[in-house]
Amino acid sequence: MHESTLNDTADTTSTTDTTATEPEPAVRKRRLVAPATDATNAEPTKPPAPPVPSVPPPSRKPQIGDSRPAPTPQPSPPAGEEATGQAAPQASSGEGSTGRRRRRRGGRGRGGRGRSGDAANAAQSTEHAADANAPVEAILADQQPLELNEEQLTERRGKYRNGKPLGRYRMCVHVAAGAAHIAVLEGRSLIEYYVSRPSDDVSEIYGNVYLGRVRRVLPGMEAAFVDIGTPKQAVLYRGDLTVASDQDDDQGGAERRRAGGRRGRSVSGPPISELIKNGQSIMCQIIKNPIGHKGARLTSEVSLPGRFVVLVPNSSVMGISRRLPNRERRRLRSLLTKETPEGFGVILRTAAENVTAAEIRRDIERLTQQWKQVSALAERSDAPALLFREPELAVRIIREQFTADFREVVIDDAELFSQVKGYLEAVAAPLLDRIRYYDPVAERLPLFERVHVSEQVRKATDRKVWLPSGGSLIIEHTEALTVIDVNTGRNVGKSSLNETLFQNNLEAATEIAKQLRLRDIGGIIIVDFVDMDDRHQREQLMSTLNEALARDKTRTATEPISDMGIVQMTRKRTGEGLLESMSDPCETCEGRGIRLRESLFA
Prior knowledge:
alpha+beta, 14 helices, single chain, 7-stranded mixed β-sheet
Protein backbone atom coordinates (compact mmCIF):
# COMPACT_ATOMS: atom_id res chain seq x y z
CA MET A 1 0.00 0.00 0.00
CA HIS A 2 2.02 2.80 1.33
CA GLU A 3 5.61 2.91 1.41
CA SER A 4 10.53 7.54 4.87
CA THR A 5 13.80 9.92 7.61
CA LEU A 6 17.03 10.98 9.23
CA ASN A 7 17.01 13.38 12.16
CA ASP A 8 18.65 16.77 11.89
CA THR A 9 22.18 16.80 13.15
CA ALA A 10 22.60 17.93 16.71
CA ASP A 11 24.46 21.07 17.75
CA THR A 12 28.14 20.23 17.76
CA THR A 13 28.82 22.68 20.59
CA SER A 14 26.99 20.50 23.13
CA THR A 15 29.20 18.49 25.48
CA THR A 16 28.66 15.35 27.49
CA ASP A 17 28.24 15.18 31.25
CA THR A 18 31.05 14.83 33.77
CA THR A 19 30.81 11.04 33.90
CA ALA A 20 32.06 10.74 30.28
CA THR A 21 35.60 11.45 29.07
CA GLU A 22 36.11 15.20 28.78
CA PRO A 23 37.09 16.26 25.22
CA GLU A 24 39.99 18.58 24.51
CA PRO A 25 39.00 22.27 24.27
CA ALA A 26 38.95 23.76 20.81
CA VAL A 27 41.45 26.55 21.72
CA ARG A 28 44.09 26.12 24.44
CA LYS A 29 46.35 28.92 25.71
CA ARG A 30 49.92 27.79 26.29
CA ARG A 31 51.63 29.06 29.47
CA LEU A 32 55.16 30.43 28.89
CA VAL A 33 57.74 29.49 31.60
CA ALA A 34 60.80 31.74 32.00
CA PRO A 35 64.23 30.06 32.15
CA ALA A 36 65.93 29.65 35.53
CA THR A 37 68.23 32.60 36.62
CA ASP A 38 70.15 33.72 39.66
CA ALA A 39 68.19 34.85 42.61
CA THR A 40 69.87 38.23 42.52
CA ASN A 41 68.96 38.91 38.93
CA ALA A 42 65.52 37.36 39.05
CA GLU A 43 62.68 39.68 38.22
CA PRO A 44 59.28 39.31 39.85
CA THR A 45 57.11 37.12 37.70
CA LYS A 46 53.47 37.84 36.97
CA PRO A 47 50.90 35.27 38.02
CA PRO A 48 49.55 33.20 35.13
CA ALA A 49 46.36 34.45 33.51
CA PRO A 50 43.23 32.49 34.39
CA PRO A 51 41.97 30.15 31.68
CA VAL A 52 39.50 31.72 29.30
CA PRO A 53 36.34 29.67 28.94
CA SER A 54 35.36 28.69 25.42
CA VAL A 55 32.62 30.81 23.91
CA PRO A 56 30.07 28.92 21.86
CA PRO A 57 29.28 30.33 18.42
CA PRO A 58 26.06 32.34 18.08
CA SER A 59 23.06 30.18 17.36
CA ARG A 60 21.41 30.47 13.95
CA LYS A 61 17.94 31.91 13.89
CA PRO A 62 15.21 29.53 12.67
CA GLN A 63 14.47 29.84 8.97
CA ILE A 64 11.40 29.02 6.94
CA GLY A 65 11.56 25.38 5.86
CA ASP A 66 13.55 24.17 8.87
CA SER A 67 12.25 21.01 10.51
CA ARG A 68 12.07 20.31 14.18
CA PRO A 69 15.18 18.35 15.23
CA ALA A 70 14.63 15.07 16.96
CA PRO A 71 16.11 14.50 20.45
CA THR A 72 19.83 13.67 20.30
CA PRO A 73 20.59 10.14 21.62
CA GLN A 74 22.53 10.39 24.87
CA PRO A 75 25.13 7.91 26.17
CA SER A 76 23.92 5.31 28.61
CA PRO A 77 24.52 6.21 32.27
CA PRO A 78 26.85 4.21 34.53
CA ALA A 79 25.45 1.25 36.35
CA GLY A 80 25.42 3.07 39.67
CA GLU A 81 23.40 6.00 38.42
CA GLU A 82 20.97 3.82 36.46
CA ALA A 83 20.27 1.78 39.55
CA THR A 84 19.51 4.83 41.67
CA GLY A 85 17.67 6.66 38.88
CA GLN A 86 19.60 9.91 39.54
CA ALA A 87 20.59 12.21 36.73
CA ALA A 88 24.23 13.07 36.15
CA PRO A 89 25.43 16.34 37.69
CA GLN A 90 25.69 19.28 35.37
CA ALA A 91 29.10 20.36 34.11
CA SER A 92 30.47 23.72 35.14
CA SER A 93 30.17 26.68 32.86
CA GLY A 94 33.93 26.67 32.30
CA GLU A 95 33.61 23.31 30.59
CA GLY A 96 31.04 24.50 28.06
CA SER A 97 28.05 22.65 29.47
CA THR A 98 24.66 23.41 28.10
CA GLY A 99 22.99 22.72 31.43
CA ARG A 100 20.79 19.92 30.07
CA ARG A 101 20.17 16.77 32.02
CA ARG A 102 21.12 13.46 30.51
CA ARG A 103 18.26 11.30 29.32
CA ARG A 104 17.93 7.58 29.26
CA ARG A 105 17.82 5.61 26.05
CA GLY A 106 14.78 3.77 24.82
CA GLY A 107 11.30 4.56 26.07
CA ARG A 108 7.74 4.37 24.94
CA GLY A 109 6.95 5.38 21.42
CA ARG A 110 10.40 4.57 20.00
CA GLY A 111 10.52 1.39 17.98
CA GLY A 112 14.20 1.71 17.16
CA ARG A 113 15.96 0.04 14.30
CA GLY A 114 17.35 -3.31 15.29
CA ARG A 115 16.32 -3.03 18.95
CA SER A 116 14.41 -5.62 20.88
CA GLY A 117 10.71 -5.23 21.58
CA ASP A 118 11.35 -5.00 25.35
CA ALA A 119 13.72 -2.09 24.88
CA ALA A 120 11.30 -0.34 22.52
CA ASN A 121 8.42 -0.69 25.01
CA ALA A 122 10.35 0.24 28.18
CA ALA A 123 8.44 2.56 30.53
CA GLN A 124 9.64 6.15 30.70
CA SER A 125 9.41 8.57 33.60
CA THR A 126 7.68 11.93 33.34
CA GLU A 127 10.96 13.86 33.56
CA HIS A 128 11.94 12.42 30.15
CA ALA A 129 8.78 13.48 28.33
CA ALA A 130 10.73 14.77 25.31
CA ASP A 131 12.02 11.29 24.52
CA ALA A 132 8.60 9.77 25.16
CA ASN A 133 7.08 11.99 22.46
CA ALA A 134 9.66 11.01 19.84
CA PRO A 135 8.13 9.42 16.72
CA VAL A 136 7.97 5.64 16.45
CA GLU A 137 10.65 4.16 14.22
CA ALA A 138 9.99 1.13 12.02
CA ILE A 139 11.25 -2.02 13.76
CA LEU A 140 13.30 -3.81 11.13
CA ALA A 141 14.90 -6.66 13.07
CA ASP A 142 13.96 -7.39 16.66
CA GLN A 143 13.89 -11.18 16.91
CA GLN A 144 15.96 -14.24 16.07
CA PRO A 145 15.30 -15.89 12.68
CA LEU A 146 12.88 -18.79 12.61
CA GLU A 147 14.26 -22.26 12.00
CA LEU A 148 13.23 -23.74 8.65
CA ASN A 149 13.53 -27.31 7.46
CA GLU A 150 15.64 -28.29 4.48
CA GLU A 151 12.73 -28.29 2.03
CA GLN A 152 11.66 -24.80 3.05
CA LEU A 153 15.21 -23.51 2.82
CA THR A 154 15.56 -24.92 -0.69
CA GLU A 155 12.38 -23.16 -1.85
CA ARG A 156 13.37 -19.85 -0.31
CA ARG A 157 17.00 -19.78 -1.45
CA GLY A 158 16.14 -19.68 -5.13
CA LYS A 159 18.18 -21.11 -7.97
CA TYR A 160 21.96 -21.65 -8.07
CA ARG A 161 24.50 -22.60 -10.73
CA ASN A 162 28.03 -23.71 -9.85
CA GLY A 163 27.48 -22.47 -6.32
CA LYS A 164 26.50 -18.95 -7.45
CA PRO A 165 22.96 -17.55 -7.04
CA LEU A 166 20.92 -16.96 -10.16
CA GLY A 167 18.37 -14.23 -10.67
CA ARG A 168 16.89 -11.93 -13.24
CA TYR A 169 17.67 -8.71 -11.40
CA ARG A 170 20.56 -7.08 -9.60
CA MET A 171 20.46 -4.17 -7.14
CA CYS A 172 23.36 -1.79 -6.52
CA VAL A 173 23.34 0.79 -3.73
CA HIS A 174 25.88 3.62 -3.78
CA VAL A 175 26.06 5.94 -0.76
CA ALA A 176 27.61 9.33 -1.49
CA ALA A 177 27.84 12.59 0.42
CA GLY A 178 24.30 13.90 0.81
CA ALA A 179 22.44 11.16 -1.09
CA ALA A 180 22.05 7.42 -1.58
CA HIS A 181 21.62 6.05 -5.11
CA ILE A 182 19.74 2.80 -5.77
CA ALA A 183 20.00 1.16 -9.20
CA VAL A 184 18.05 -1.93 -10.28
CA LEU A 185 19.39 -3.73 -13.34
CA GLU A 186 17.90 -6.45 -15.50
CA GLY A 187 20.96 -8.10 -16.96
CA ARG A 188 23.14 -5.10 -17.78
CA SER A 189 20.23 -2.77 -18.56
CA LEU A 190 19.17 -0.19 -15.98
CA ILE A 191 15.41 -0.40 -15.37
CA GLU A 192 14.91 1.55 -12.10
CA TYR A 193 16.87 4.33 -10.43
CA TYR A 194 16.16 6.15 -7.18
CA VAL A 195 17.87 9.00 -5.37
CA SER A 196 17.37 9.15 -1.61
CA ARG A 197 18.50 12.29 0.16
CA PRO A 198 18.80 12.38 3.95
CA SER A 199 15.24 12.63 5.23
CA ASP A 200 14.46 15.90 6.94
CA ASP A 201 10.80 15.45 7.91
CA VAL A 202 9.95 18.06 5.27
CA SER A 203 10.36 16.68 1.74
CA GLU A 204 11.09 12.94 2.14
CA ILE A 205 8.03 11.98 4.18
CA TYR A 206 6.29 9.34 2.07
CA GLY A 207 4.69 6.70 4.33
CA ASN A 208 5.02 8.72 7.54
CA VAL A 209 2.05 8.88 9.92
CA TYR A 210 1.07 12.22 11.45
CA LEU A 211 -1.41 13.60 13.92
CA GLY A 212 -2.59 16.57 11.90
CA ARG A 213 -4.93 19.45 12.61
CA VAL A 214 -7.54 20.49 10.04
CA ARG A 215 -7.01 24.14 9.18
CA ARG A 216 -9.48 24.72 6.36
CA VAL A 217 -12.27 22.64 4.85
CA LEU A 218 -13.15 23.42 1.24
CA PRO A 219 -16.65 22.05 0.45
CA GLY A 220 -16.41 23.27 -3.15
CA MET A 221 -13.26 21.21 -3.70
CA GLU A 222 -14.25 18.27 -1.46
CA ALA A 223 -10.86 18.63 0.22
CA ALA A 224 -9.28 19.96 3.39
CA PHE A 225 -5.92 21.49 4.25
CA VAL A 226 -4.25 19.77 7.20
CA ASP A 227 -1.33 21.11 9.25
CA ILE A 228 1.19 18.29 9.85
CA GLY A 229 4.11 20.46 11.00
CA THR A 230 5.73 20.96 7.57
CA PRO A 231 6.18 24.36 5.89
CA LYS A 232 3.41 23.54 3.41
CA GLN A 233 0.07 22.26 4.60
CA ALA A 234 -0.96 18.84 3.27
CA VAL A 235 -4.20 18.18 1.43
CA LEU A 236 -6.78 15.50 2.24
CA TYR A 237 -9.31 14.78 -0.50
CA ARG A 238 -12.72 13.32 0.13
CA GLY A 239 -11.75 10.25 -1.87
CA ASP A 240 -8.91 9.54 0.59
CA LEU A 241 -11.06 9.92 3.69
CA THR A 242 -12.34 6.70 5.27
CA VAL A 243 -15.73 6.74 6.92
CA ALA A 244 -17.66 4.20 8.97
CA SER A 245 -20.50 2.48 7.16
CA ASP A 246 -23.96 2.13 8.64
CA GLN A 247 -23.83 -1.66 8.51
CA ASP A 248 -21.70 -3.71 10.90
CA ASP A 249 -19.61 -6.64 9.85
CA ASP A 250 -19.81 -10.19 11.23
CA GLN A 251 -17.53 -9.38 14.17
CA GLY A 252 -19.80 -6.53 15.25
CA GLY A 253 -17.23 -3.79 14.61
CA ALA A 254 -17.65 -0.80 12.39
CA GLU A 255 -16.41 -1.56 8.90
CA ARG A 256 -14.17 0.98 7.31
CA ARG A 257 -14.40 1.73 3.64
CA ARG A 258 -12.59 4.11 1.37
CA ALA A 259 -14.58 6.34 -0.92
CA GLY A 260 -13.63 6.11 -4.58
CA GLY A 261 -13.00 8.72 -7.17
CA ARG A 262 -10.03 10.78 -8.26
CA ARG A 263 -9.56 13.84 -6.06
CA GLY A 264 -12.91 13.29 -4.42
CA ARG A 265 -14.97 13.14 -7.60
CA SER A 266 -17.97 10.79 -7.94
CA VAL A 267 -18.00 10.09 -4.24
CA SER A 268 -21.15 8.76 -2.62
CA GLY A 269 -22.05 9.51 0.96
CA PRO A 270 -21.90 12.68 3.06
CA PRO A 271 -19.75 15.61 1.91
CA ILE A 272 -16.43 16.32 3.51
CA SER A 273 -17.83 19.29 5.43
CA GLU A 274 -20.00 16.89 7.45
CA LEU A 275 -17.14 14.49 8.23
CA ILE A 276 -14.38 16.80 9.48
CA LYS A 277 -14.36 20.31 10.92
CA ASN A 278 -11.84 23.11 11.25
CA GLY A 279 -9.54 22.63 14.23
CA GLN A 280 -10.19 18.88 14.44
CA SER A 281 -7.27 16.50 15.06
CA ILE A 282 -6.98 13.62 12.60
CA MET A 283 -4.50 10.76 12.16
CA CYS A 284 -3.30 10.58 8.57
CA GLN A 285 -0.55 9.09 6.41
CA ILE A 286 1.46 10.53 3.52
CA ILE A 287 0.70 8.93 0.15
CA LYS A 288 2.52 11.50 -1.99
CA ASN A 289 5.56 13.64 -1.18
CA PRO A 290 5.31 17.41 -1.63
CA ILE A 291 6.22 18.32 -5.20
CA GLY A 292 7.12 21.85 -6.21
CA HIS A 293 4.60 24.31 -4.80
CA LYS A 294 2.13 21.53 -3.93
CA GLY A 295 1.95 20.11 -0.44
CA ALA A 296 1.87 16.45 0.48
CA ARG A 297 -1.22 14.32 -0.13
CA LEU A 298 -2.83 12.47 2.77
CA THR A 299 -5.07 9.52 3.47
CA SER A 300 -6.85 8.68 6.70
CA GLU A 301 -6.53 4.94 5.98
CA VAL A 302 -3.29 4.29 7.85
CA SER A 303 -1.27 1.17 7.00
CA LEU A 304 2.02 -0.21 8.34
CA PRO A 305 4.15 -2.14 5.82
CA GLY A 306 6.26 -5.14 6.83
CA ARG A 307 8.36 -7.69 5.03
CA PHE A 308 5.53 -10.10 4.18
CA VAL A 309 2.31 -8.28 5.11
CA VAL A 310 0.80 -4.80 5.20
CA LEU A 311 -1.26 -4.21 8.35
CA VAL A 312 -4.32 -1.95 8.03
CA PRO A 313 -5.73 -0.95 11.45
CA ASN A 314 -9.47 -0.45 11.92
CA SER A 315 -10.24 -2.36 8.75
CA SER A 316 -11.47 -5.75 7.63
CA VAL A 317 -9.71 -5.86 4.26
CA MET A 318 -7.98 -9.10 3.25
CA GLY A 319 -5.85 -9.14 0.12
CA ILE A 320 -3.08 -11.05 -1.62
CA SER A 321 -0.65 -9.78 -4.24
CA ARG A 322 -1.83 -10.49 -7.78
CA ARG A 323 1.75 -11.22 -8.85
CA LEU A 324 1.63 -14.55 -6.98
CA PRO A 325 0.47 -17.71 -8.80
CA ASN A 326 -3.06 -18.95 -8.20
CA ARG A 327 -1.97 -22.06 -6.30
CA GLU A 328 0.11 -19.98 -3.88
CA ARG A 329 -2.71 -17.49 -3.49
CA ARG A 330 -5.07 -20.25 -2.37
CA ARG A 331 -2.55 -21.50 0.21
CA LEU A 332 -1.95 -18.04 1.58
CA ARG A 333 -5.66 -17.27 1.72
CA SER A 334 -6.22 -20.22 4.05
CA LEU A 335 -3.39 -18.99 6.30
CA LEU A 336 -4.66 -15.45 6.23
CA THR A 337 -8.09 -16.36 7.61
CA LYS A 338 -6.42 -17.95 10.65
CA GLU A 339 -3.71 -15.38 11.37
CA THR A 340 -5.59 -12.10 10.83
CA PRO A 341 -6.12 -10.36 14.22
CA GLU A 342 -9.47 -8.89 15.13
CA GLY A 343 -9.88 -5.25 14.20
CA PHE A 344 -7.12 -5.30 11.58
CA GLY A 345 -6.92 -5.83 7.87
CA VAL A 346 -4.00 -7.70 6.32
CA ILE A 347 -2.61 -7.64 2.77
CA LEU A 348 0.04 -10.19 1.77
CA ARG A 349 2.91 -8.93 -0.38
CA THR A 350 4.71 -10.64 -3.24
CA ALA A 351 7.57 -11.49 -0.86
CA ALA A 352 5.17 -13.79 1.06
CA GLU A 353 5.58 -16.55 -1.54
CA ASN A 354 6.46 -19.89 0.11
CA VAL A 355 6.56 -18.38 3.63
CA THR A 356 5.29 -20.30 6.64
CA ALA A 357 2.42 -19.43 8.95
CA ALA A 358 4.90 -18.68 11.75
CA GLU A 359 6.67 -16.04 9.66
CA ILE A 360 3.39 -14.36 8.75
CA ARG A 361 2.30 -14.48 12.39
CA ARG A 362 5.52 -12.88 13.63
CA ASP A 363 5.35 -10.16 10.99
CA ILE A 364 1.79 -9.36 12.06
CA GLU A 365 2.80 -9.32 15.74
CA ARG A 366 5.65 -6.90 15.02
CA LEU A 367 3.37 -4.52 13.11
CA THR A 368 0.63 -4.81 15.74
CA GLN A 369 3.13 -3.79 18.40
CA GLN A 370 4.15 -0.79 16.30
CA TRP A 371 0.51 0.24 15.95
CA LYS A 372 0.05 0.11 19.73
CA GLN A 373 3.01 2.44 20.12
CA VAL A 374 1.64 4.81 17.46
CA SER A 375 -1.81 4.86 19.09
CA ALA A 376 -0.34 5.52 22.54
CA LEU A 377 1.82 8.34 21.15
CA ALA A 378 -1.20 9.90 19.41
CA GLU A 379 -3.15 10.01 22.69
CA ARG A 380 -0.47 11.96 24.55
CA SER A 381 0.60 14.22 21.65
CA ASP A 382 -0.74 17.58 20.52
CA ALA A 383 -1.37 18.14 16.82
CA PRO A 384 0.57 18.62 14.64
CA ALA A 385 2.97 15.80 15.52
CA LEU A 386 4.94 13.09 13.72
CA LEU A 387 3.84 9.68 15.02
CA PHE A 388 5.59 7.13 12.80
CA ARG A 389 8.64 7.49 10.59
CA GLU A 390 9.53 5.14 7.75
CA PRO A 391 13.17 4.00 7.29
CA GLU A 392 15.44 5.24 4.55
CA LEU A 393 14.50 4.66 0.93
CA ALA A 394 17.29 2.12 0.36
CA VAL A 395 16.04 -0.03 3.25
CA ARG A 396 12.41 0.27 2.09
CA ILE A 397 13.23 -0.85 -1.45
CA ILE A 398 15.15 -3.87 -0.17
CA ARG A 399 12.31 -4.66 2.22
CA GLU A 400 9.65 -4.53 -0.49
CA GLN A 401 11.43 -5.77 -3.62
CA PHE A 402 14.27 -8.08 -2.62
CA THR A 403 13.32 -11.69 -3.39
CA ALA A 404 14.96 -14.77 -4.92
CA ASP A 405 14.54 -13.09 -8.33
CA PHE A 406 17.54 -10.90 -7.41
CA ARG A 407 20.85 -12.63 -7.82
CA GLU A 408 22.57 -10.13 -5.52
CA VAL A 409 22.36 -6.80 -3.71
CA VAL A 410 25.66 -4.88 -3.68
CA ILE A 411 26.18 -2.06 -1.16
CA ASP A 412 29.28 0.11 -0.97
CA ASP A 413 28.58 1.59 2.48
CA ALA A 414 29.61 -0.43 5.54
CA GLU A 415 27.00 1.05 7.88
CA LEU A 416 24.08 0.49 5.51
CA PHE A 417 25.37 -2.99 4.69
CA SER A 418 25.43 -3.89 8.38
CA GLN A 419 21.90 -2.57 8.85
CA VAL A 420 20.49 -4.46 5.87
CA LYS A 421 22.35 -7.64 6.83
CA GLY A 422 20.87 -7.56 10.34
CA TYR A 423 17.41 -7.07 8.89
CA LEU A 424 17.73 -9.97 6.45
CA GLU A 425 19.10 -12.25 9.16
CA ALA A 426 15.82 -11.85 11.05
CA VAL A 427 13.26 -11.95 8.22
CA ALA A 428 14.94 -13.53 5.15
CA ALA A 429 17.89 -15.62 6.32
CA PRO A 430 17.87 -17.91 3.22
CA LEU A 431 18.66 -14.89 1.04
CA LEU A 432 21.52 -13.67 3.20
CA ASP A 433 24.23 -14.96 0.84
CA ARG A 434 22.82 -12.76 -1.95
CA ILE A 435 23.87 -9.53 -0.24
CA ARG A 436 27.46 -8.39 -0.70
CA TYR A 437 29.62 -5.52 0.51
CA TYR A 438 31.58 -3.65 -2.15
CA ASP A 439 34.75 -2.03 -0.85
CA PRO A 440 35.53 0.87 -3.23
CA VAL A 441 39.07 1.21 -1.83
CA ALA A 442 39.99 -2.42 -2.42
CA GLU A 443 38.22 -2.56 -5.80
CA ARG A 444 39.91 0.69 -6.96
CA LEU A 445 36.84 1.59 -9.00
CA PRO A 446 33.48 3.11 -7.95
CA LEU A 447 30.57 0.69 -7.88
CA PHE A 448 28.46 2.43 -10.52
CA GLU A 449 31.39 2.60 -12.92
CA ARG A 450 32.03 -1.10 -12.41
CA VAL A 451 28.44 -2.03 -13.39
CA HIS A 452 28.15 0.72 -16.09
CA VAL A 453 25.31 2.61 -14.41
CA SER A 454 26.67 6.15 -14.60
CA GLU A 455 26.42 6.46 -18.37
CA GLN A 456 22.93 4.93 -18.42
CA VAL A 457 21.71 7.45 -15.83
CA ARG A 458 23.06 10.33 -17.87
CA LYS A 459 21.23 9.08 -20.97
CA ALA A 460 18.02 8.75 -18.91
CA THR A 461 18.05 12.51 -18.31
CA ASP A 462 18.14 13.40 -22.04
CA ARG A 463 15.00 14.53 -23.81
CA LYS A 464 15.79 12.38 -26.84
CA VAL A 465 15.89 8.57 -26.78
CA TRP A 466 17.07 6.60 -29.81
CA LEU A 467 15.33 3.39 -30.90
CA PRO A 468 17.24 0.34 -32.23
CA SER A 469 16.02 0.79 -35.82
CA GLY A 470 16.92 4.49 -35.99
CA GLY A 471 13.69 6.06 -34.75
CA SER A 472 13.53 8.28 -31.71
CA LEU A 473 11.39 9.46 -28.77
CA ILE A 474 11.14 13.08 -27.65
CA ILE A 475 10.06 13.41 -24.00
CA GLU A 476 8.85 16.83 -22.85
CA HIS A 477 7.61 17.72 -19.35
CA THR A 478 4.98 20.35 -18.62
CA GLU A 479 3.15 21.44 -15.48
CA ALA A 480 0.05 19.39 -16.24
CA LEU A 481 1.36 16.38 -18.16
CA THR A 482 4.24 14.66 -19.95
CA VAL A 483 4.23 14.45 -23.75
CA ILE A 484 6.10 11.73 -25.69
CA ASP A 485 6.47 12.15 -29.46
CA VAL A 486 7.41 9.14 -31.61
CA ASN A 487 9.49 9.88 -34.74
CA THR A 488 10.83 7.61 -37.48
CA GLY A 489 14.11 9.52 -37.59
CA ARG A 490 16.74 7.57 -39.53
CA ASN A 491 14.46 4.52 -39.86
CA VAL A 492 13.70 4.23 -43.59
CA GLY A 493 12.46 0.61 -43.54
CA LYS A 494 12.86 -2.06 -46.20
CA SER A 495 9.53 -3.18 -47.69
CA SER A 496 6.71 -0.63 -47.42
CA LEU A 497 5.78 2.58 -45.59
CA ASN A 498 2.96 0.92 -43.66
CA GLU A 499 5.27 -1.83 -42.35
CA THR A 500 8.01 0.68 -41.49
CA LEU A 501 5.63 2.80 -39.41
CA PHE A 502 4.19 -0.26 -37.66
CA GLN A 503 7.58 -1.69 -36.66
CA ASN A 504 8.75 1.74 -35.52
CA ASN A 505 5.68 2.11 -33.28
CA LEU A 506 6.19 -1.37 -31.78
CA GLU A 507 9.77 -0.50 -30.83
CA ALA A 508 8.55 2.80 -29.39
CA ALA A 509 5.86 1.11 -27.27
CA THR A 510 8.41 -1.16 -25.57
CA GLU A 511 10.86 1.69 -25.03
CA ILE A 512 8.16 4.02 -23.68
CA ALA A 513 7.23 1.53 -20.94
CA LYS A 514 10.92 1.23 -20.01
CA GLN A 515 11.46 5.00 -19.90
CA LEU A 516 8.38 5.60 -17.75
CA ARG A 517 9.70 3.12 -15.22
CA LEU A 518 13.31 4.30 -15.34
CA ARG A 519 12.53 8.02 -15.18
CA ASP A 520 9.65 7.46 -12.72
CA ILE A 521 7.32 9.66 -14.74
CA GLY A 522 3.90 10.05 -13.14
CA GLY A 523 0.64 11.89 -13.70
CA ILE A 524 -0.99 12.33 -17.10
CA ILE A 525 1.04 11.05 -20.06
CA ILE A 526 0.22 11.68 -23.74
CA VAL A 527 1.92 9.55 -26.42
CA ASP A 528 1.82 10.61 -30.07
CA PHE A 529 2.54 7.54 -32.19
CA VAL A 530 3.12 7.74 -35.93
CA ASP A 531 -0.27 7.56 -37.70
CA MET A 532 -1.39 4.11 -38.90
CA ASP A 533 -4.47 3.42 -41.00
CA ASP A 534 -4.84 -0.30 -40.24
CA ARG A 535 -7.17 -0.90 -37.26
CA HIS A 536 -5.66 -4.33 -36.53
CA GLN A 537 -2.19 -2.82 -36.35
CA ARG A 538 -3.43 -0.22 -33.85
CA GLU A 539 -4.92 -2.96 -31.68
CA GLN A 540 -1.69 -4.96 -31.81
CA LEU A 541 0.24 -1.82 -30.85
CA MET A 542 -1.94 -1.31 -27.75
CA SER A 543 -1.51 -4.96 -26.80
CA THR A 544 2.29 -4.58 -26.98
CA LEU A 545 2.18 -1.38 -24.92
CA ASN A 546 -0.02 -2.87 -22.18
CA GLU A 547 2.13 -5.99 -22.01
CA ALA A 548 5.26 -3.86 -21.53
CA LEU A 549 3.56 -1.70 -18.90
CA ALA A 550 2.51 -4.81 -16.95
CA ARG A 551 6.16 -5.41 -15.96
CA ASP A 552 6.08 -2.18 -13.96
CA LYS A 553 4.90 -2.52 -10.35
CA THR A 554 3.47 1.01 -10.44
CA ARG A 555 -0.13 1.18 -11.58
CA THR A 556 -0.76 2.55 -15.07
CA ALA A 557 -4.16 3.09 -16.70
CA THR A 558 -4.35 3.48 -20.50
CA GLU A 559 -7.06 4.55 -22.91
CA PRO A 560 -7.51 3.00 -26.39
CA ILE A 561 -5.50 4.55 -29.20
CA SER A 562 -7.38 7.18 -31.16
CA ASP A 563 -7.67 7.47 -34.94
CA MET A 564 -4.97 10.12 -34.83
CA GLY A 565 -2.53 7.79 -33.07
CA ILE A 566 -2.86 9.45 -29.63
CA VAL A 567 -2.70 7.32 -26.44
CA GLN A 568 -3.66 8.77 -23.07
CA MET A 569 -2.49 7.17 -19.84
CA THR A 570 -2.01 7.94 -16.17
CA ARG A 571 0.72 6.58 -13.93
CA LYS A 572 0.75 6.77 -10.14
CA ARG A 573 3.09 9.43 -8.81
CA THR A 574 4.56 9.29 -5.31
CA GLY A 575 7.32 11.90 -5.60
CA GLU A 576 9.58 13.75 -7.98
CA GLY A 577 10.91 11.89 -10.99
CA LEU A 578 14.48 11.09 -11.97
CA LEU A 579 15.01 14.32 -13.90
CA GLU A 580 13.81 16.50 -11.01
CA SER A 581 15.91 14.61 -8.46
CA MET A 582 19.09 14.91 -10.57
CA SER A 583 18.81 18.56 -11.62
CA ASP A 584 18.11 22.11 -10.46
CA PRO A 585 16.14 24.76 -12.38
CA CYS A 586 18.24 27.25 -14.31
CA GLU A 587 18.55 30.55 -12.46
CA THR A 588 18.57 32.50 -15.73
CA CYS A 589 15.52 31.06 -17.49
CA GLU A 590 13.80 29.59 -14.39
CA GLY A 591 13.45 26.21 -16.05
CA ARG A 592 11.88 27.46 -19.30
CA GLY A 593 14.94 26.55 -21.38
CA ILE A 594 15.10 29.88 -23.19
CA ARG A 595 16.91 33.21 -22.77
CA LEU A 596 15.00 36.33 -23.69
CA ARG A 597 16.70 39.00 -25.78
CA GLU A 598 16.39 41.97 -23.48
CA SER A 599 17.49 44.37 -26.22
CA LEU A 600 14.26 43.71 -28.13
CA PHE A 601 12.11 44.71 -25.14
CA ALA A 602 13.48 48.24 -24.97
